[in-house]
Amino acid sequence: xxxxxxxxxxxxxxxxxxxxxxxxxxxxxxxxxxxxxxxxxxxxxxxxxxxxxxxxxxxxxxxxxxxxxxxxxxxxxxxxxxxxxxxxxxxxxxxxxxxxxxxxxxxxxxxxxxxxxxxxxxxxxxxxxxxxxxxxxxx
Length: 139
Known about the structure:
Elements: H1 2-15, E1 18-20, H2 21-30, H3 41-52, E2 59-63, E3 66-70, H4 78-89, E4 93-95, H5 96-100, H6 106-118, E5 123-125, E6 130-132
């Protein structure tokens, strides 16, 4: 559990406190200075469950089929997880048009994206007015 918090804390400035399960398991497997194959996603889920009793901050969030680890305080709403799922399907990129196609009105889109930006979970690409989820860049 302690190594999980260290690994997610170290990546927080880059990914806003969201990391894929796959990335976290890989980091934990290398955290001891040697490559370890014995760290599995079930181990991470158990560790996060133990951390959850200490309060808000660590939890497993599903974005479609992808498991994301949230390591920052705050509650992700269904709109947040839906937006993350849409980004996951697009390699980490999210546009207003993606959310409009789901029938979301402009106010709902703006509220969701503003909240995710405030938490540092998405970045804005001002060149083409899109959003990027750093944790999902490689997906």
